[in-house]
Amino acid sequence: MADDLDPLLNQLPALRRYALALSRDESDAEDLVQEALLRGHEHRRSLRPGGNLRAWLFGILRHAFLDRNRAQLSRRRREAQAAALTPRAMDAPQDAAVRLSQLRAAFLDLPPDQREALALVAVEGLTYAEAAALAQVPMGTLMSRVARARKALRDFEDGRATTPSLKLVGGRDADDA
C-alpha cells in the first residue's frame, strides 16, 4: 500500500505549485489540492494503467478550481439579485430601540394589577382562566384589567397617553409661554 502512495506523494509539490498559481491564495491552494486528491481517489478507476498520473491529477485540480469559480460566480449573482430586491434604506435600529424602550416604560407605568394581568396573558401566554386563578381574582376582573392595560398601551402608541413629554434644554415649554 505504501508503494501505491509514493507516486502520489511525489506529485504533491507540483500540485501545490499549480494550485497556488491558479488560486493565488495558499489556503485556497491547499483546499484545491485536497479536493483534487479526494476526487482522484474517488475516480481512480478512470486513470488508465500506465497513464500520466501528473497530467491526470492536474486535470482534476483544474476542474476543481473551475467548479469553485463557477460556484462563487453563481453565489455572487444570487447575492446581487437578492440585494436588488431588498430596500436600499432601512429605519435606523436606534429608533426601534428607543421606541421599544418607551413602550417598555409605558408598560411598567401601568397600574400593578393591569401590568400583572397583561404580563400573564400577553407575555406568558396563560389563558384568562389560568391567569385569573394565579392572580386570585374573578376571570371577568382579569379580563377587564387586560382590556384596560391594552387600551392604555394603544393610547400610548397613538400619542393619546398622558406621558411626560420631552423638554429641550434651553428651550421653552408650552406651559411657560
From TrEMBL:
One of its GO terms (biological process) is DNA-templated transcription initiation. Gene3D superfamilies: 1.10.1740.10, Winged helix-like DNA-binding domain superfamily/Winged helix DNA-binding domain. Residues 12-72 form the RNA polymerase sigma-70 region domain. InterPro entries: RNA_pol_sigma-70-like, RNA_pol_sigma-70_dom, RNA_pol_sigma70_r2, RNA_pol_sigma70_r4_t2, RNA_pol_sigma_r2, RNA_pol_sigma_r3/r4-like, WH-like_DNA-bd_sf. Keywords: Sigma factor, Transcription, Transcription regulation. Residues 102-153 form the RNA polymerase sigma factor 70 region 4 type domain. One of its GO terms (molecular function) is DNA binding. Belongs to the sigma-70 factor family. ECF subfamily. PANTHER family: RNA POLYMERASE ECF-TYPE SIGMA FACTO, RNA POLYMERASE SIGMA FACTOR RFAY-RELATED. This is Sigma-70 family RNA polymerase sigma factor. It comes from Paracoccus limosus.
